[in-house]
Amino acid sequence: MEKKMRFGIKSKIIIGYLIVIVCLFIAFIVLNSQISSLQKERNFIIDHDIEVHDLTNRIEKHLLDMETGQRGYIITGEASYLEPYNSAASSWEKDYNALYQLLNNNPNQQEKLEKIKGSIQDWIEAAGEPTIALKKENNTKELQQFFEKDPGRQYMDDIRSQFTSFRNVEKKSTETRATELDEKNQKIKIGLYGLLLFVTLISLAIAIVLSNSIVNTIKEVTQTIKRITASKGELKGRIKVRSNDEIKDLGIATNALLENIEERNWLQTNIAHAVTMYQGIGSVDKLAEKFLFTVSEMTGASFGAFYVREENDKGDLFVKQAAFADRKGDAGRESFLIGEGLIGQAALEKRTLVINDVPDTYQLIASGLGDVKPKSIFIVPVLFEDEVIAVIELASLHELTVLEQELISQVIETFGLTINGVIRRMEIARLLKESQAMTEELQAQSEELQTQSEELQMQSEELRMINEQLEERTKDAEEKSFELEAAKEDLEEKAHQLELNSQYKSEFLANMSHELRTPLNSILILSEMLEENAAKTLSEDEEEYARIIHSSGKDLLALINDILDLSKVESGKLDVLLAEMNMSELPDQIERNFSHVAEQKKVQLKINKAQDVPNIIHTDEKRFQQIVKNLLSNAFKFTESGSVTVSIQRVADHRLTTAMRTVDTDCWLEIAVADTGIGIPKEKHQLIFEAFQQADGATVRKYGGTGLGLSICSEFAKLLGGWISLSSEVGKGSTFTLYLPSLSNGLVDYEKVNFAYEEVAVSIEEAEPEAEITEIDHPVQPVEPSLPDDENVFQDKRVLIVDDDQRNIFALKTALAKQGMTIMTAHNGIECLEMMKNSEPFDLILMDIMMPQMDGYEAMQKIRGELKLVDLPIIALTAKAMKNDREKCLEAGASDYISKPLDLNQLFSVMRVWLVN
């Protein structure tokens, strides 16, 4: 049968479009032909009629020129009037002949032209030439007689009348042709509409035919799928498609899917049936018979044998336990060793064997009419815990399909567990019978020895228990001793590593502080000088730029100080200086420091101090002030409206926990900072007290911050023997509460109050703020004497700046020179000593510490020692603001100490003190 030609949906659509395009092309050709015909007729009307009217007018013009020239010559006698006459007399016949030729298809008009020609010639012969001749002869009398009669006028009137009649005929002819052209144009328009309607109908017909051929086929497929769906799981139906297109491909694919689903359902159903048939079977032979019968029924196998592994002196032996369709028990051998025959080889390799080319010598399958040779053999091992415990062999009169093989393989996957369970149950039953027999034999002896046995058993049990306890204790002691030894070694190693890490961290922070503070020093000094604008050379915008730069530099300095403080706390190198603190001044200090912030943000600042708060407490005032400033700065930062409330009160005795009572203190204070700000989620409360952590860790944050402020506050509070707690609700605000003891008897171990923290502190719920703390090291002289004006102190003073950083030298030199001082510079300690030996004495030295070749420590020692300049003021400037820096500078010979970046007001204040002294 000839294969049906494939006619796809795409081909149908393309052919439909081609037919429409062909119709449109034919319509275009017809329309173009009609338009060309109209164009030709239009051109004929335009060219022919315009030419006729033009030639007619030209002939009349020639006649008019002849008449005008004649009359002008007769009246004036000037020969120049004869030029247009002669020219027109020689030209009008040419135009006449051309006009006559144009009218060769109109004899009537040609007759009228001939009459006009005769009239023109009659006028020339009767009026034109004679009068000119008389004028040339100067025969005035005859001319007068001629014009009294004037026969030429009658000729001219006749000629004009003839031309008028001629033009009217031509005009009517033009109108007739235009009317015919309009009628033809209307016919073309009607034809065009008809052609458009025809093409539209053809297109609709093609679209309907194509859509019906596609939609009807899809409907057939859909109805078939609905019938299959409505059959409640019956998947026998198949989709039949008559068309040879993509929908047929869809039907074929759907049929293949249905076949696959049907096969999967058949597979799952038979697997479930095979699994359920094992229940209640208590022996291997019955299990084997049941399995062979079920599998043969499912796969159509005609012969089978079931071998189970048994152990004997020769090793593992697979013994036949059941057979299917055998003849008097001769279905296969009784046993196989591993590796022997196909059964043994399948067990050895643990893989399935499929043989479709069965030899003639294979066991024949018996039937009522004779013996039949099988066509396929299927041997599969049964595994349990990756060990072969049985082998099954099936023979079939047909080749087993892939689906039937998959069915057997999946059933076998769990069948090993079933076989092992049955074998174990059989073994248990056998052992139970043996145990019962032995029990009966020993029962008599047991009764005789029962009394002695009970006594001995009690003693033995006691001794065993004691021995076990001693062994366990000895073993536990040895294990704990070993663990303690290992833990000790680990702790020692970690302590050593921690010490090294702390040392490296301290050196790194010191170097980092120096490297950051050195350029920051120049930024702050120069930006402050620009901000002051002493020379009034900067605009207001430029002054604002300078203020922003100066403010940013201070923020960076605060961040550096925060990192250093946190490092000092973590390494245990932060000193706590306990002293008396006046609590009565705290509200005024808070009001003075934060009232302008409250006014700027339009937030109300409330300060409540209880009457029972003591006027004097003992703590580190500097650290205490840092904590309070941090908490207030955070409260204002995260509060857009509402109020910030500071409550200072004494913790009542009935609120003191057991752990708080153990602290040697006069009283406990509670300083609460509450705001009506944004609040933070409960799950963020612990996070915000960790370094560099914030309640909002996203990259885009509204409030900014580094995540150090609360961490530093928490560590400071611990150093002072207290802690910080937090209660917060998102959208309503937060309350940070500082619990602090008055340490009149010295510091306490924070571990003693750690339990109190857990009892009293509310879970920490505030968004992480930033600390804005600028630590300023004060000069050694706490009291400044009465000083004169700056100009009198600094004027003409010689100052030596010793620094290896050119930026710092430039900044300091510029700032000091404006005060009227004479500035000299040196880049290291060696240059400093050389200049002091070879120059006039200096009034003051500004000495950087970290410099190449000779640092500031060594230079100051040589100035005091070798040069014997004991009274010369030396102010040490350093950016390595670590612990004991001040003490080291003073021991080396410095008169005072200032850390970078420098505050010019502080620098001038210290210089003023030493220059006056």
What integer value in Å does the Rg equal? Answer: 62 Å
How would you describe the oligomerization state of the chains in this entry?
Answer: single chain
* Shape descriptor: flat
Biggest β-sheet strands, sense, barrel = 6 strands, antiparallel
Q: How much helicity do the residues have?
A: 55-70%
**Which structural class fits the helix and strand makeup?**
alpha/beta
Integer average pLDDT? 75
The fraction of residues in strands falls at 5-15%
Using brief descriptors, characterize the structure shown.
single chain, 917 residues, alpha/beta, 6-stranded antiparallel β-sheet, 5-stranded mixed β-sheet, 20 strands, 59% helix, 13% strand, flat
Give a verbal description of the structure.
With 917 residues, the chain is α/β, with parallel strands linked by helices. It has 21 helices and 20 strands. The strands form five sheets. It has a six-stranded antiparallel beta sheet, sandwiched between helices. The chain has a five-stranded mixed beta sheet with strand order 10-12-13-15-14, covered by helices on one side. A five-stranded parallel beta sheet has the order 17-16-18-19-20, with helices on both faces. Strand 1 and strand 2 (315-324) form a beta hairpin. The chain is flat, with a radius of gyration of 62 Å. 27% of the residues are buried.
